[in-house]
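[audit] Reproducing an earlier prediction to check determinism. Same input, same settings, fresh worker. If the tokens differ from the archived copy the diff job will pick it up downstream; this log only records the rerun itself.
[audit] input (363 residues):
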Amino acid sequence: MNPEMKKYLFILAIFAILTQARGQDVLFYALSDNASLDEPISLCKLDTATGEISIVESFAGVMQGNYMAISPDGNHLLVTSKNKNRNRGGLVQFSIADDGSLTFLRNRFKPGGMPCHVSFTPDGKYAMSASYGDDQVSLYTFKDGVLGPQTDQVVKPDQSKGHYIQSGPSSTFVHAVFLGQDKVLNFMIEDGSFVENPNQLYFSLPQGYGPRHMVFHPNNMLAYILNELDASVTGCAYNADKGVLNEFQNISMLPDGFEGNNSGAAIRLHPNGWFLYASNRGHNSIVVYQVQNNATLVPVQHATENVNWPRDFNISPDGKFLLVANQKGDSISVFSIDQKTGMLTPTGNRILMPGPLAILFLP
């Protein structure tokens, strides 16, 4: 081998080592509810080798937003928002560029409060929102990349507090969590309308549990519901063909002996399906569960360092890091995830941000 070829191969080897050490940057959006911010949506990046995070750019267009959703094709972002006069609420649509930057397109506001959750149907034909203050869930068309008008809504008055709405794994059924009713209402979508699922109109939880969010396991046979008021997680067998939930476990999110005020906030499953995480506001912790072969949960850790009112958190697509939105800590902090146990270790990496409420990774 001639000297020039040896030199060339050496340079390639060094480049490969440096690239591996640096890791790949993964982008995510972080949303602040701070009314004083002109640009409350931040595009951030995570280094998947070091866990370092930083803000790339920030964007205007929403007022005290709550939650975000990316369209199935990855080209659009919806954010819940109030209007400038704060007397109407709804959704704001942005287009997403290849580098993650956002361009405001349109909003859909209506009288009343602001939705607290938004999602897309898997086929991208509809967007759905849940409104805590208005006791309802709403359905919008989404055609050719355009968020259309509302086509239907389900209102359950008397403090039913709609808190979450999401399609199930089969894409046939939609599940709406009403905290004040202690129920998960089950629907299908037909011709732009919510239609009750005849197999199970709703799944009931004990009075006062206050269900808030839910997640589906990658095997499509399990669902886990976070109960905000009871600070517990309810595990359910899920029949994806019928859209039916059946409880098999309820487990506390708190350590033994805790007696202070607390409310549950967010729930996420690790991409591998072996670990489940939920956040406590009051105890200020992320509880780590291992998912057993029989689907039951076993708590293995309450991570508390650098956690202050964790209204939301999310897991990097590679499953290596967990990022916590500390609403009262005005920061986003980073934990590494042990791939064998699911347990969390603080990395010490964080960014400062007033009142972060939601974290959403780009696909």
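[audit] rerun output stored. Observation attached for the diff report: The first strand starts at residue 25 and ends at 32.
[audit] end
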